[in-house]
Specification:
There is one protein chain. By secondary structure, this protein is an alpha+beta fold. It has one domain. The strands form two sheets. Strands 2-1-6-5 form a four-stranded antiparallel beta sheet, covered by helices on one side. A hairpin with a 2-residue loop joins strand 1 and strand 2. The longest helix has 16 residues. The protein is flat.
């Protein structure tokens, strides 16, 4: 029998496989670095850095750190696709969690994306 944690891990792994490798989708990209500050009301801010290289999966979805988040997270795919299409090197902004749960106080991130091209 598969418990919820194992099912979630299996689904996460399948999303990676479905996304494919960066080298296939973005052959002109040498690296992508996402620096973010994760914040949620009542919780101290958390800094995270994610690094992507040609051998990385092209999955730019960051999971929410909230325990009661329902299928939420931060999808950076549109931002990164637009940056690569326009050959942009940096982008900054803020995203809210796309949680589908009933909570009023969703988490958010302030991000900076840096792309290095070949």
């Amino acid at each position: 029998m598969i418990n919820r944690s194992n099912q979630s891990r299996i689904e996460r792994n399948q999303r990676k496989l479905d996304a494919g490798l960066m080298s296939k989708h973005f052959p002109e990209v040498e690296s992508i670095v996402i620096n973010m500050i994760y914040s949620q009301q009542g919780i101290r801010a958390v800094r995270r850095t994610l690094n992507f290289y040609p051998a990385s999966y092209a999955l730019f979805r960051v999971d929410c750190l909230s325990d009661d988040c329902v299928d939420g997270g931060f999808d950076m795919s549109g931002i990164i696709n637009s940056m690569v299409r326009n050959h942009s090197e940096t982008s900054k902004g803020e995203l809210g969690c796309d949680d589908s749960g009933p909570r009023r106080d969703h988490s958010s991130i302030v991000y900076e994306v840096a792309i290095q091209y070949v």
